[in-house]
Amino acid sequence: MSSSLVNAPEPQTAAPETPPPPAPAVFRHRVEYWLAKTVLSGLGSLPHAAARGIGRVLATLAYLFWIRLRRVGMFNLRLAFPDWTENQQRKVLRGLFLGFGRMLADFAHYPRVRRDNIERLIIYDGFEAYAQAHSEGKGVIFLTAHFGNWELSSFAHGVYGHPLSFIVRELDNPLVDQLINRYRCMSGGRAIDKRDAAREVLKALRRGEAVGILSDQNMLLGDGLFVNFFGVPACTTTAPARFARKTGAAIVLGLTVWDEKLKKYRLRFERVPWIRREDPEEEILVNTQNFARLLEEQIRRYPEQWLWVHRRWKTRPPGEPPLYPK
User: Fewest CB within 10 A of the end CB: N or C in the chain?
Assistant: First the structure.
């Protein structure tokens, strides 16, 4: 799943048609597609433990050589945990990259996952919170984030018999985009392109369905509101709050957490109460702030499982200087 969700509840015009890519881009797309397909097919053909071992090696190499991401991660960790030592920050960042490797291996094994073996990979934690929300019949906003194995959350929920729609950002390579979405939707889920998100999300919620929304990405100025996140203003999507207010849909925080003791994931659900205010825009802001607060609590509990390599605080309030070095 990917965020960058539009804030307007109803789009006013259709997205313009994308012109076909030039020939060099088409060639590059094909090369990237076959590389991605080879990696997924290769890892998927191996025993799961072996695939995770290779994923661990790839993740270690990425940590060592993907310097730009490592710098962003360290900058964010210094911002969020200024009292930590550099060793503590690096330990968390290494854990994040190792999680990427495990995530890749697990993704490659989606074709092998069925209802009779899903519990070897992931179990529910607090499913009753989701069940209660769904029983109310007004739809469920599956509020989530780039946390743990976020790709697995919607996929596993579908395998357990509760498929949902989820918003994605189309990848630059359309061939790879189709490949990834094919894996994502193997358990009955439906990918919604962010360009059509407002209309499609409202339709799904009004049918009483569940929709997954990632809420932790940086938004452009004017596309979100600033809320406190680790003590720093963060431009945050208001879409979950706007959809909930418009439809009356229940909100459930759903995060996929790696449990080191169990050596498997837990899909954790927590019902999020709606905070009411007389002023509609204040109500949107207060609830968006509450969503960020709940996520921050979980990140502080499991710091190695959040996407520190994303420039979460890139957009600044008007008049304030950039945080990230050029």
Answer: C
Closest CA to 2 of 228, 162, 177: 177
Q: Which residue has the tokens 């849909």?
A: 249
The parent domain of residue 226 ranges over 23-305
Say which amino acid occupies 311. R
Tens place of pLDDT per residue across the chain (326 aa):
443 333 333 333 344 455 666 666 789 999 999 999 999 999 999 999 999 999 999 999 999 999 999 999 999 999 999 999 999 999 999 999 999 999 999 999 999 999 999 999 999 999 999 999 999 999 999 999 999 999 999 999 999 999 999 999 999 999 999 999 999 999 999 999 988 799 999 999 999 999 999 999 999 999 999 999 999 999 999 999 999 999 999 999 999 999 999 999 999 999 999 999 999 999 999 999 999 999 999 999 999 999 999 999 999 999 999 999 98
Residue 317 maps to a domain: no
In a domain, 1, yes or no: no
Residues 63 and 72 sit within 8 Å (Cβ to Cβ): no
Amino acid at 10: E
User: Phi, psi (5° rounding) for residue 252?
Assistant: -130, 125
Report which DSSP code applies to 236. Answer: E
Is residue 227 within 8 Å of residue 233, measured between CB atoms?
Answer: yes
316 assigned to some structural domain: no
Q: How many domains, the chain?
A: 1
The residues, ordered by sequence, that sit 6+ positions from 176 with a Cβ below 8 Å of its Cβ are: 29, 32, 33, 36
